[in-house]
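User: Run a structure prediction on this.
Assistant: Running it now.
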Amino acid sequence: MGNNMIRRLIVLGGLSIIGIIFVQSYWLLKTWDIKDKEFDQTVNIVLRNVAERMSKFNKTVLPKENLIQRKSSNYYAVNINSEIDAGLLEQYLLQEMHKQSLNIDFEYAVFDCYSDELVYGNYCSNDLVSEKDMNPNSDFRKFNDLIYYFVVRFPKRESFLLANRNMTLTLTVLSVLAIIFFLYSMWIIMEQKRLSELQKDFINNMTHEFKTPLSSIKIAADFLATDPHVKNDGRLHRYVQIIKDQNLRLNNQVEKVLNVAHMEKDSIELKKEVFEINETLSSVINNESLKLKHGNISFNGTIQPVYILADKLHFINVVANMIDNAIKYSGEDPKVDISLQESDHTIQMHIKDNGIGIDKDNIKKLFEKFFRVSTGDVHNVKGFGLGLYYVNNICNSHGWKIRVESEINEGTEFIITIPKYKEA
């Protein structure tokens, strides 16, 4: 994942988090406001009904204005202009609360005009708890603008409103968890990105450091190979040839690592050109056949020339990598068959070997970086597992389709579908 992609992800994620927090906060406040209004309306209905029943019992007339006054969020005063029987008041309150399904604890007090004080009435609870579990609060404020009135307070209003918002609170908790998970994921991504950059830098530095000694070894081996004494000594000549072969193999592996590192650091720059595929394949096969001590590479091309538009260097590297892979996994007598199948708009390149084959689980991982097919306890197949990773990247960059068909002990066949070039 590139730095630009990570930056976009962080920005979009941050905006999403801000949006979620804003919307969630808005709905929390909106829901609270709606629930509070519903609560206030229900309490007003209860208190109005109680006041009307008290007025009817006392045969008095209720005031036309300011009958019920909300003094604070959970504190109400009811002006009824007549003396109040505390016992009857409590009975009416309980009955009306039950009618309106307002199951909340409350406490009330009645104004005594003789003592000019609010006399505490009772704490009424919907729970079956004892008196010692209740927490009555007798600190009621009196109001000089009212004469005959009673007050009701709901000490558990906040918890009552919260208890009716389980779904909203659940969604809020899930949103918070989602935000935490996103932030944690971003931290993991950044940490993995940092470690990946360290790994790439180490591999790049290591492989570049290998280039100088490898060049020196090649020059020294070439010089020894031309020395007359070495030429005349079969044993020395064989040792020099081993040094050259191993130097070449190590240099090829270093080049593969550098190519892959370059592909990951920068986007692949394709220098496309039109070339004839039969001629190019024949040249690659001839070069690769020189590496074989046993076995052979056969080629079955098309009758007519077929042209494609591609990066020729990368195309040659793709074919060379696949032939090299086929040889490595084909035992002591490798047979690699390369053929072309032409259709109206595409050309299919088939590369088939007689190797050990690949099981279905490994086919899924075949194009992953550093993945190598297991050969059991015998580790005679050399490499870093970068060849097919490179092949897949080049095919994707060109828009080619690549698929694999394989059976254990029956060999493997790679099929690459390439569009044919047609002049406009």
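Residues 128-134 have pLDDT under 50 and may be disordered.
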